[in-house]
C-alpha cells in the first residue's frame, strides 16, 4: 500500500475538518500562547478583553471608545456603542470610566547600565520602573554599562544580560566612539547585530570607556547609517573655555561648589550652541541627493530653546534629516530654584533658567521640538555626594523614568497642553525615531502597549508612593505633589502593572531593527 492510501480513510467524513482544525490550532493559536501569554506574564488571566473609557486617545482625537485586545495586539478600536458587550463566552470588558486610555510611552533615552554597573540601574529594576510609569517600550543607551555597547560582541553581551529580565520591550542604541569610526566594519557589524542606530558624545561622557567623537567622526559614520536607514543620536555639547573656569588658578580648589550657579557657569549654553552648529553642517549630507541620504541626526536632551533650536529649525527647513528631543527636567525645574547642595538636580547639559523652561514648552507646542525622553541616568547614590553637595564632583544624571507621565502632565497642564500632544511627544514621535512601526498608537494591528491613568488624581511623591526604581533618594522629584496617576499598564497585551502591583514574570522582548 502507498503511504497516501493510509491517509484515505482518515480524510473521509469528520477527519478532514479535524485535520484543518488541528493545523489551524498549531499554526495560529499556539504561537500566541507560546510567545507571550504564558503563565505569570500578566496580572489579567484573559487574553481577549476590551478596555473602555470616556477618554481614549486615538489618532482621530480623544473619544469615548473601546479598545479590543486579543493576544499581543489591538484588534479593534471602536465607539463605545459599537463595542462588544459583556456576555458569556465573550471577551472580558474592563470599564475604566473617566480615566485616560492612551498608547504606552516610548522612552528612547534610558541608561540601564547592565552588565557592569547594575548597581546604578539594571534591566529588572529599570523595566519595572518603566511599567509602573506607563512606559511600555524603551531604548537603552550604549553607556554606562561595562563594557559599553560599541561592537557586535558587546551588543550580544547586552542581549544575554537582558534575557528573562525585561518587564517591557527594550531596544538598544549602539555607541559611536573613535575606535569604530577608525574601523567601519565594527560599525557595520554592530548595526547588523541589532543596534537600532548609534549614539555619540561631542564632549567627555563621564565614562572613560566611552570616549567622545568630533563632528568629522559623525560625518564619517553617516554613510554607513544611511545604508541601514538608521539614526545618529548625539549628545550635543562641545567643551568651550568658560569665563568662570578661567578665573581659577591651576590646582586651586573649586569654590562655592555647593552653589548650583557655580556648576551652571562651567557648562554654558555656548557649549550646546557650538555642538549644534557643527552638527547642522554635517547634517547637510542627509538631505535628498546628499552623500548620506537615508541617515538622520537626532539631538538628544536639548536645553537651549534659543540659538541651538533655531539652528535645528533652519536645518530642517533646508532639507536636512534632523530631529530633537528635550527632557522632563528641563521642563519642570529652573536653575534659580535649585537649592544649594542638591546634586540630585545635576545633569548635562545643566538645567537652565526659568525663561528657558517656558521657551522649551512653547517650542514643544509649536512642533519645533519633536519629542520628550527621560535621559534616565541614575548612579550609585554615593556618587551623587548628597552629604557633601558638591555640584562639581557629583555624578551628572537624573533618575526619573517612573515619574515622567505625571511630571509632564503636571507641568504641562498648567501651560495648556493636551492629551494628544502628550501622545505625540511620548509615543508617536519616539516610535518614528526608533522605527517601531507596530508601536506608538491605538490602532488595529498595533501592539497592545497601553497606559490607563487618571490625570486628575494627585499624589505626593514621598516614601509611601510605591517606588520601583533603584535608588529612591537620588530623584529630584522626591517630595513633589504631582497629578496623573498610572492605574494600569499593558505591554503587548500583558497587564504588567496595576495599582502598585507588577506581573510576576518579566515577558518583554528585545526590539531588534525592522528591515
Ligand atoms: N554618562 C551619562 O549617563 N551621561 C548623562 N547624564 C547626564 O546628565 N547627561 C548625560 O548625557
Ligand atoms: Zn547625554
Ligand atoms: Zn543620556
UniProtKB/TrEMBL annotation:
Residues 240-262 are annotated as: Disordered. Homotetramer. Pfam families: ALN_composite (PF24890), Amidohydro_1 (PF01979). Residues 44-99 form the Allantoinase composite domain. It comes from Sphagnum troendelagicum. Belongs to the metallo-dependent hydrolases superfamily. Allantoinase family. Keywords: Hydrolase, Metal-binding, Zinc. The keyword Transit peptide does not apply. Residues 100-496 form the Amidohydrolase-related domain. This is allantoinase. Pathway: Nitrogen metabolism; (S)-allantoin degradation; allantoate from (S)-allantoin: step 1/1. Its cofactor is Zn(2+). Its EC number is 3.5.2.5. InterPro entries: Allantoinase, ALN_composite, Amidohydro-rel, DHOase/Allantoinase_Hydrolase, Dihydroorotase_CS, Metal-dep_hydrolase_composite, Metal_Hydrolase.
